[in-house]
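Help needed: design a sequence for this.
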């Protein structure tokens, strides 16, 4: 990620931030940080998961929406008091929360309430996905967080219980167990080979 602004933005100003480009940004400690375009391999994993989640939502008639174009407001840092907002690679939210986003035509699509599930595909900064975002998503109360790691060839599913994430790692032909999608039939190998 490349920091593009040192201005201390609040979540309110971030939601209407427009620099005249189509670049995507996260709000990290009050600073606007550009999120680079994913590699083709990274994008294929995102596309596969979106297709699978959307098919499962339709098949099971779940009141959910899966998107790769929505942010998640994390809150203010307890250390600095500055705002954070992340853009997960995949975000699954309730239809009710999605309807609230659609109703507001003037601001960016950033959820102000925790989504049901988020996915991060590990890229260059592994600490972001394995440390920072674990703490942020856990603190926000996101019930399920997937980390797709092509280098280590595993899919980690972190489930929130009593305010803490408990991680299960899936490799090869092991079927991924998801609380959000209990009937999902998907292996780590299928995700990693995308």
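Sure. Designed sequence:
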């Amino acid at each position: 990620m490349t920091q593009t602004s040192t201005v201390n933005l609040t979540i309110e100003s971030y939601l209407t931030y427009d620099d005249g480009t189509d670049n995507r940004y996260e709000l990290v400690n009050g600073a606007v940080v550009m999120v680079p375009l994913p590699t083709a391999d990274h994008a294929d994993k995102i596309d596969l998961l979106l297709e699978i989640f959307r098919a499962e939502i339709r098949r099971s008639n779940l009141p959910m929406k899966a998107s790769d174009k929505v942010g998640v407001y994390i809150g203010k840092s307890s250390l600095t008091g500055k705002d954070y907002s992340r853009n997960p690679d995949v975000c699954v939210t309730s239809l009710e929360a999605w309807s609230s986003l659609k109703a507001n035509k003037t601001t960016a699509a950033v959820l102000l309430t925790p989504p049901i599930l988020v996915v991060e595909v590990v890229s260059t900064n592994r600490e972001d996905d394995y440390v920072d975002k674990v703490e942020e998503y856990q603190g926000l109360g996101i019930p399920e967080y997937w980390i797709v790691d092509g280098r280590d060839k595993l899919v980690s599913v972190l489930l929130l219980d009593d305010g803490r994430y408990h991680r299960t790692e899936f490799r090869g032909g092991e079927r991924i167990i998801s609380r959000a999608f209990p009937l999902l039939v998907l292996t780590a190998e299928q995700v990693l080979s995308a």
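The chain has one domain: 38-69+89-192.
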